[in-house]
Amino acid sequence: MVKELLENFIPQDHIGWLFLLAIFISFFVSSTSYPAIINVAKSKNLMAFSGGRSSHSGSVPNLGGIGIFLSIAVTITTIGAVLDTKILLLILGGLTLLFFLGLKDDILILSPRKKFTGQLLAALLLILFTDTRIVSLSGIFDINIMPYWVSVVFTLFVYILIINAFNLIDGIDGLAGTLALMAIVSFSYVFYKYKDISMVVLAASVIGALIPFLYLNFSKRNKMFLGDTGSMILGFVIALFSVRFINRSELSPDAIYHNASPILVLAFLFFPLLDTLRIFFIRLVIHKKSPFAADRNHLHHRFLILGFSHRQTTAIIVITNSILIVITFLIRNWEINWQLATLLISGTILYSLYFVFNWIRGESKMNMS
């Protein structure tokens, strides 16, 4: 009976219910596993300690990525029977590789070279076995179809950039998790429009894992951090969504977002990419040091220096990024280079307003004194 039911089941006819079921399963697994993870971390002293560039005081469990991985794995293996099992198994393989690398880094410290190698392998696993890659830039700067190997290398670059972007912004309460949640909700919407049920369910599994995590991440009593495990897993999933969305949009001239997918991805990820490129420029060009050397030059550190709290900083950044997403959806039918210019100008202005305001406030105080 169950076999016949599965054979006659059409996922596209029940996409809403599958989305809700995936959120429920993931939420249940994560909310029941996080307390146990916190207890184990405290008993074994597997904590993140304050000091250096840390914006926190005291010691906090930094194994939130374990709960996120478990939630995603359980969800896509239980619901995956009626979905695209090939792509989901490959995704699970890449996630498992990054999970163990991140876990070792959170507990024992892992060299940047080994992390980078693991990220490359996880990305190549999907690119080569599914041939899901960015084949063109939809006419940005008149760049259209790229040669195969250029396409593979560029797609690898996108994976590495996004994975490390989420790793780098994980510096204050809620920032990486909330930005990831916002991006994944946005991707779940466009994948729903494309009827890409496997990606919708994967997105739902991450949403269900992030909601209870963010509650703990913002908590003062039972606080938990993502750790490298969590930030790399989130970055990998979001990189996968970015590449798949652009790929599906570019290969189908009739796709709803055929002329806008690269710009929409930039909007979904505007702050992580802006901060990463900015921090790399500061470290490489100004300070002449490794781009992975820790410091307090991130934009979220600048907000803290201005006197904003962790919650206020996260709220400002997420609201600003949400405005950019709305703007980009509104202009998605424009010529793509005009879309890009509008996004870059709008983003630069919006993220500069707080610093301009603080400078004007400082100047007025000096004049009054």
Report on the architecture of this protein.
Keywords: Cell membrane, Magnesium, Membrane, Metal-binding, Transferase, Transmembrane, Transmembrane helix. One of its GO terms (biological process) is lipopolysaccharide biosynthetic process. Strands 1-2 form a two-stranded antiparallel ribbon. It contains 14 helices and two strands; from the N terminus they run ααββαααααααααααα. It is mostly helical. Helix 5 (112-130) crosses helix 6. It has one domain. Helix content is 72%, strand content 2%.
Note the topology.
Layout: H1 2-7, H2 15-43, E1 47-49, E2 59-61, H3 64-79, H4 85-107, H5 112-130, H6 148-168, H7 175-193, H8 197-218, H9 227-251, H10 261-268, H11 270-286, H12 299-305, H13 310-330, H14 336-368
How would you briefly describe this protein structure?
The protein has 369 residues and is mainly alpha-helical.
Feature tags:
mainly alpha; magnesium; cell membrane; Glycosyl_transferase_4; PNAcMuramoyl-5peptid_Trfase_CS
Q: Can you give the mean pLDDT? A: 87
Helix content: over 70%
Q: How do the strands line up in the largest sheet?
A: 1-2
Main beta-sheet strand count, sense and barrel state:
2 strands, antiparallel
Number of domains: 1
Separate helix tally: 14
In whole angstroms, how far apart are the ends? 82 Å
**Can you write the helix and strand succession as a string?**
HHEEHHHHHHHHHHHH
What portion of the residues fall into strands of 2 or more residues?
under 5%
Question: Rough shape?
Answer: globular
The radius of gyration is 21 Å
Instruction: Report the count of strand segments.
Output: 2
Structural class: mainly alpha
Low-confidence stretches: none
Protein name: Undecaprenyl-phosphate N-acetylglucosaminyl 1-phosphate transferase
GO molecular function: metal ion binding; phosphotransferase activity, for other substituted phosphate groups
Pfam families: Glycos_transf_4
Membrane topology: Multi-pass membrane protein
